[in-house]
Write a structure and sequence with these properties.
alpha/beta, D-Maltodextrin-Binding Protein, domain 2, Alpha-Beta Plaits, five-stranded mixed sheet, 9 helices, 30% helix, globular
C-alpha cells in the first residue's frame, strides 16, 4: 500500500462534476449513497471523500496525498500544500466562483464602509475578516452553518459564494463587492510530492484531468471532401489548428478531421455541407491532451 496514492475528492455541490471529470479522465468511480470511500478501477488509487472546506487541511497533514478543493478554502485554512494544477470548473459551468458581499435590495448599504459596526454572516470567516481589516472597516464576522442567503435580513450583510449571481437576485439580494474569486485546484502534500512514485502518479492525474476539462466544450468533426473542394472547405475550419487530412481509396476524395468548440459546430456543419463535404460525423471527446 506504500505506493498507493490516497486521493481526496470533494463531497457536496462539486461531487457530481468531479465524478464526471474523473470519468472523462479515464477513471470509473462508484459509490453508495452513504459511502465516503468510492471504489475506483485503478489499483494505484484509493479515493476518500471530504468536504471541500476541510480538504486542504487533510492534504497538508498527510491524511490524503492529494485532493481537489477550491483555492478559497486553501487560503481560508492557511494550508501549506503544493498546488499542482488549476482546474477551472464548478458546480454548473466551467467558470470560477466568486465570494461576494451581499445585502438585501432595500438595505441602506451601498459600499463596504457603510457596514462599519455591523454584523456579517459567512462560512468564509478568516478571509472575510482580513478583507474588512484591510479596508479599515470594523465588523463582527459570524460563522454561518449554511443557508447563508436566508440570514441576509437578520444581520447587516452576508458573504456567500456564487457562480452567476442568479440565486442571490432570486432572493432579493444585491452584490456590493466581490471579496475573492476562486477556482478548483489539484493539490498535494509536500511528503507525497517528494515521493518519486507518488509524484509521477500525481503529475499523470493532473495531465489527464486537464485533458478531460479541455474536452468538455469541444467536439471532433470528421468528413469526406472532394479534392477539388478541399481548399474551400479548409477555409471554413477554425484557423487555430490545421486539420488532419488523409487520402482515401478513391484518389479524388480525402478525409478531413478537426477538433473545435461545440458552440461552433452547429453553425459550421451546414456551411461545410454546402461547400461540398459529405459523410460528416460529429463526436464527443473525453480528453484533449495538448
Amino acid at each position: 500500500m506504500g505506493n498507493v496514492l490516497k486521493l481526496g475528492l470533494p463531497t457536496g455541490s462539486l461531487q457530481e462534476a468531479t465524478f464526471d471529470m474523473m470519468r472523462r479522465a479515464g477513471f470509473l468511480l462508484s459509490a453508495g449513497s452513504r459511502s465516503l470511500f468510492p471504489a475506483v478501477d485503478d489499483p494505484e488509487l484509493q479515493v476518500i471523500q471530504f468536504r471541500a472546506q476541510e480538504m486542504s487541511r487533510y492534504v497538508e497533514d498527510g491524511v490524503v496525498d492529494a485532493g481537489l478543493t477550491g483555492h478559497d478554502w486553501i487560503v481560508e485554512n492557511g494550508s501549506d500544500v503544493v498546488e499542482v494544477a488549476e482546474l477551472v470548473y464548478s458546480k454548473a459551468k466551467l467558470v470560477p466562483v466568486r465570494w461576494v458581499l451581499a445585502v438585501p435590495q432595500e438595505s441602506r448599504v451601498q459600499a463596504v464602509a457603510d457596514l462599519d459596526g455591523g454584523i456579517v454572516a459567512t462560512e468564509l470567516v478568516n478571509t472575510t475578516r482580513r478583507f474588512f481589516q484591510e479596508r479599515g472597516v470594523r465588523v463582527k464576522v459570524e460563522f454561518s452553518w449554511g443557508a447563508t442567503e436566508a440570514k441576509a435580513r437578520l444581520v447587516d450583510a452576508i458573504v456567500d459564494v456564487t457562480e452567476t449571481g442568479s440565486s442571490l437576485r432570486a432572493n432579493g439580494l444585491r452584490i456590493v463587492e466581490t471579496i475573492v474569486t476562486s477556482t478548483t485546484r489539484f493539490i498535494a502534500s509536500h511528503q507525497a510530492w517528494d515521493h518519486p512514485g507518488k509524484r509521477e502518479k500525481i503529475e499523470n492525474l493532473a495531465m489527464l484531468l486537464r485533458g478531460a476539462l479541455a474536452a468538455r466544450e469541444k467536439v471532433g468533426l470528421k468528413m469526406n471532401v472532394p479534392r477539388a473542394m478541399l481548399e474551400k472547405v479548409c477555409q471554413l475550419l477554425p484557423a487555430e489548428k490545421s486539420p488532419t487530412i488523409s487520402s482515401l481509396h478513391d484518389p479524388e476524395w480525402v478525409a478531413v478531421e478537426v477538433i473545435l468548440p461545440e458552440v461552433e459546430e452547429r453553425q459550421l456543419v451546414p456551411r461545410l455541407k454546402r461547400a461540398g463535404a459529405s459523410g460528416i460525423i460529429v463526436y464527443p471527446l473525453n480528453k484533449v491532451i495538448p
